[in-house]
Amino acid sequence: MVGANGESRYAPAPPKPSDPDGFCFHSPHPEVFSGQARHHHRHSHQNMASLKLQPADQKVLPKAKKTGTTICGLICHREGCVVLGADTRATSEAIIADKNCSKIHYLAPNIYCCGAGTAADTEHVTQLISSNLKLLRLNSGRQSRVDVACVLLKRHLFPYQGYVSAALVLGGVDFTGPHIYQVWPHGSTDSLDYVTMGSGSMAAMSMFESRYSHDLTLDQCKDLVHDAVLAGIFNDEGSGSNVDITIIERNKPAQILRNMDTPNTRLHPMRFQMPLKNTVVLREFIELHEAAPVAPAAVPAPAKKAEDEERAAMPLE
Amino acid sequence: MDAPITRTLEPINTGTSVVGITYKDGVLIASDTLVSYGSLSRFRSIQRLVSIGPCLIGASGDYSDFQHITDLLTQKVDEASFHQDGFQYTAPELFEYLCRVMYERRSKVNPYWNRVVMAGSKQGKPFLGCVDLYGTHYASPTVATGYGEQLAQPILRKEWHPDMSLEEAHALLEKCMRVLLYRDCYTINKVQFARIGLDGQTTIEPPAPLTGTRWEAPLTITLP
Amino acid sequence: MLTPAVAPIEAKKKEWSPYTDNGGTTLAIAGPDYAIVAADTRLSNGYSISCRDVTKLAQLTQHCVIGTAGMQADRAVFHKLLRTRVDYFKYKYGKTITPTALAQMIANILYGHRFFPYYCFNVVGGLDAQGHGVVFSYDAVGSYQALPYATTGSGAQLLEPLLDSHIAQRNRTQKNPPMSKDEAIAFVKNAMASVSERDIHTGDFLEIAVITREGTQIITREADGVERIKLGFD
Predict the structure, then answer these.
(1) Minimal CA separation from B142 to chain C, in Å
(2) For labelling alongside A192, which of A257, B128, C123, C194 has CA 20 to 30 A away?
(3) Which residue in C13, C14, C17, C77 has the most chain B C-beta atoms within 10 A of its own C-beta, making it the best mutation to test that interface?
(4) Which CATH superfamily is domain A71-261 in?
C-alpha cells in the first residue's frame, strides 16, 4: 500500500527536474543545469534561457511561507483618517504555518502598510522602505509623506517584474491628508478610498462595496474594516484567526489594535497527562570534558550617551 | 471520413453569477440577463432563470449547455405528467436527477459546463440546491455561483436568517447584485428576480435595472 | 543558418480534469468493544467554502460506517453504490454483510475502477464477530489494510502522529489501558479540532459515528442535543 493517500498510484506526479539548487543561475555545479555548460566555468546564458522557457509549473522553487490573506484599508473622509485591517493567518500550501502573524507593518509613525503574498517579501520590502523613509526624515527633518512611501515601494517592486511577490495596502496621513494606496507586486499602484488585497480580497470588497460611503464616522469605518476582515476570515480558507486593525489619525500616534477581535478560539481543549520519564531511553552516556579556561571579564563599552540624546532630540518621532 | 468527436473544452456563450436564498415562504433567486461571448457582451436580454415543473433553475456557465439541461428537465417533468396519475416530481427529486446527469457527463469527460442552482420546496420547507460540472452538489439556504461565490456569499452568510420576509430577501439579493455589478466584468445592469413559494407557485419578475447603485469617484485622487 | 538555442516548448493541449478535491478529514478508531468513525462537514472548492454542512459519513449496516474524504461527487456515487451492494448482499444471502466482508467488497469495487478511480479516500469502522472494533483504511484504487486506527484526507498528515502517540502509545515506557468509548469520543473531538486549527480545508462541524454491540449512533450534536459539534469556522 502506498500510504493511505495513494494518489501516486494512478496519477504519478510530473517528473521534477533533478536540479537541487532550484532557481539559482550561478550554481557552483553547472552540470546540473545543462550538459553543454559542463566544461566551461563562465556564466552560461543558455541555462538562463532554458530555465526561462520552462513552463511555470515545472520550476522548482523552495516552498515559501505565504500570507494567503485578507488585508484592506479605507479612508475616513469625515474625520480625515485612515483605517487598515488584516487577518492573522499565514499558510504554507494547505497547512497553517502561523495562526497569529502580524501583517500590518510599520513604515513611519504616520504610515503603515498591510502585506499579502510571500511573507518574506512583504516583511523585507516594508522594512527596507521603512528604513529609507527614516533616512529621508533624518535628512529633511520633515514628516514622511504617504506618496513618497508609495513611490519608494513601486520603484523597488517594478524592476523585479513581480518576482518580489508583495501585494500591499499602504495607508497613512500626512500634511496633505489621508491616503490609501493599493500596491501590486509588479509595481503598479492605485490611490483609492477603499482597497482590499490577498486571497480574501473579494470577500472583504463585498463588505466595502455594499457599505462604504464618504460620510462614515471613524467608528463606522472601524466596524466596516472589522467586518471586511471577518468576511475574509470566514469565507476564504487562505485567511483566518484574528482581526488586526491600525487607525492613523492626523497628529496623533497611530492606534495599533493588535488582535482587536479573536473570533476563533480553541475548541474542545483537553488536558493530556504525561507521566515523567515516559520516553523510552535507548542509550545513556556522559562525556567528561576538561573545564575551559575562564576568559577575562570584558570591559563594558562606554554608553554612547551623547549620540542617544541627539537622536532623542530629533523632531517628528 | 467520420468527423472527430468534439467536446466542450471551454464554454463559448456564458452567463455569469446566479445567487439565491431561502426565505420564510419560499426561495428567491436572481441573475442578470447577459450572455457573453468571451469578453463581448453578446446577448444582453436573455432570461437565465427558468421555471420547470416544481422548481426554478438558473445557471452560470455555458448557455447552450444550460438550454439543453432545461430541455432534459422539462422532458422528465412532461414524461411524468403524461401518465395523468397525479404524480409529480418534487424539487429534491428533480435535483437528484440533475446531479446524476451532471455527474454522468463529467464521467464521460464531456461535462455540461455549468453550475446550476435549483429552487423549490421539500416537505413544506424551502429547498435550494446547487450542482457544478463535476457533479459536486449541496443544499444550502444561501447559494451563489460564478463570481457570486466570492463576492455575494460573504454578504449572504452574514445577513441571511431563516425567517426573512420576501421584501428583506429581495433587498438582500439586490445588494449582492449591486456588488456583482460593480466588480464582475461580465455583468450588465439588467437584473431578473424569480421566486418559488412553498406552494410551488413561481413568479418570474420582468428584468429591470438595479436601483440605488452608486458611482461616486474617490474623493482623494493623488498621483502617483 | 541560425538555429534557436532552445527548442520552443509545444503549446500544452487543452485538457479538462474530471477530478476535483473537496478537502476534509476522516478519522477511525478501533476500540476493544466499540469503533468510531468521524469526519468534518466542510465542502471546499479551491479556497472557497461551498457549504459548511455536508456529511462525509455513511452508515452501511447496523455495525459498519464508512467515512470518505476526497471528491464529493465521487463520494456521493460511491456511497450510493455501497448501499445498493449491501442491500443486494442481504437479498442474495439472507443475512447482513459483516464489516470484514464489506471491507473486502469495498476494496474490490475500488480496484474495479483501477483506471478511472473514484477520488475517494475511505476509512471503514465496524465490529467483528467477537464484538471487537475493527478499522480499515483505503487508498483510492483499493489497497486496504486493517489497522487499530486510521485517518485520510487533507488533514491526515497532521492527525497520524497524534494517533501514533495517543492510540498506539508509541515510544512510551508506561502505556495506559485502551481508551474507553467516552474517552475516545472526547479525544476525537480534541484531535479533529486540532486538525481544523492547522488544515485550511478542515472545519465547520464534526460528526462522530459510534458503533457498539447495540448498534450505531451518529453524534452530530453536543450533550445538550441542541448545539452542533463545532470545529474551526475560519
Answers:
(1) 9
(2) A257
(3) C77
(4) Aminohydrolase, N-terminal nucleophile (Ntn) domain (3.60.20.10)
pTM exceeds cut of 0.90: no
Q: C76 and B137 in contact (C-beta within 8 Å)?
A: yes
Residues on chain A bordering chain B, Cβ-to-Cβ distance under 8 angstroms: 75, 77, 147, 150-151, 154, 176-180, 189, 191-193, 202-203, 205-207, 209-210, 213-214, 227, 231, 234-235
Kindly report, residue by residue over B25-57, the tens digit of the pLDDT: 999 999 999 999 999 999 999 999 999 999 999
Band of pLDDT at residue B222, cut at 50, 70 and 90: low
Q: Answer for the pair B99, B137: CB distance below 8 angstroms, yes or no.
A: yes
Q: What is the CA radius of gyration of chain C?
A: 20
The answer, yes or no, to whether residue A93 has pLDDT greater than 80, is yes
C-alpha cell of residue B157: 452568510
Judging contacts by C-beta atoms under 8 Å, the chain B residues touching residue A192 are 218
Per-residue b/e over A210-221, b at no fewer than 16 CB within 10 Å?
bbbeeebeeebb
A132-156 pLDDT per residue, tens:
999 999 999 999 999 999 999 999 9
CB contact under 8 A, B154 and A206: yes
Q: Kindly state the cell numbers that stand for B141.
A: 439556504
Average pLDDT over residues A2-16: 42
Instruction: Choose among C119, C16, C142, C128: nearest CA to C73.
Output: C119
> C169 vs chain A: nearest CA distance in angstroms?
10
Of the ranges A24-28, A221-225, A289-293, which is most confident? A221-225
Contact B136 C16 (CB under 8 A): no
Contact C29, C167 (CB under 8 A): yes
Torsion on CA atoms B109, B110, B116, B120, rounded to nearest 10: -90
The mean pLDDT of chain B is: 95
Pairwise CB contact (< 8 Å): A75 & B220: yes
Mean pLDDT, all residues of chain C:
94
Cβ-Cβ contacts under 8 Å, C48 against chain B: 149-150, 153
Q: Residue B99, Cα to own-chain centre: how many angstroms?
A: 15
Eight-state DSSP code of residue A9: G
Question: pLDDT of B59-71, one tens digit each?
Answer: 999 999 999 999 9
Separation in Å, CA of A251 to nearest CA in chain C: 36
Beta bridge partners of A95: A92, C199
